[in-house]
Design brief:
Blueprint (H helix, E strand, L loop, with lengths): L1 H20 L2 H5 L2 E8 L6 E2 L3 H9 L2 E12 L3 E12 L19 E12 L5 E8 L19
Parallel strand pairs: 1-6
Antiparallel strand pairs: 1-2, 3-4, 4-5, 5-6
């Protein structure tokens, strides 16, 4: 059982590095062909929609995933993380997630909870993400201390 979790952790560590590179083709390699995702404030997306979604997002910001807690199952992972956001262009309209306007170079962060399900090849076949808009202090719910190595 421990070896299965070790293989999953190794695979997931590689996924986080790929996601944080902001190169869509790199992190798409970790999704199964049957991939489905429920992202915060959006309808369910499938493997064909993910490049479109992230091309739009990465057009004006980059998100960096910083795990604060991970619980591994045989083919599942529960993740709590801190998302660091850097804005790459002035936003004339309020950003829907926060209701605020941002200038190029602005930074903010927010807590995120994600449940991942993996297939037999350890590819991500589904994820469900929950996030709350950033507040002055998100409280004690999700840890802010980043796990070592991330």
């Amino acid at each position: 059982m421990a070896q299965a979790h070790s293989a999953l952790k190794t695979q997931f560590d590689d996924y986080i590095r790929a996601f944080n590179s902001h190169v869509i083709a790199d992190f798409m390699k970790f999704y199964s062909p049957q991939f489905k995702a429920r992202l915060p404030n959006s309808p369910e997306v499938d493997i064909n929609s993910i490049p479109i979604v992230f091309e739009a997002i990465f057009g004006f910001l980059h998100e960096t995933l910083r795990p604060t807690y991970m619980l591994f199952g045989e083919r599942a992972l529960a993740l709590e993380a801190w998302i660091e956001v850097v804005i790459h262009q002035d936003l004339e309209q309020p950003f829907p997630f926060t209701g605020k306007k941002y200038k190029k170079g602005d930074k903010f962060g927010y807590p995120l909870i994600v449940h991942y399900e993996f297939d037999d090849d350890l590819l991500i076949k589904s994820l469900r993400a929950f996030a709350e808009p950033p507040a002055e202090d998100p409280g004690q719910g999700i840890l802010k201390e980043i796990l070592p190595g991330y």
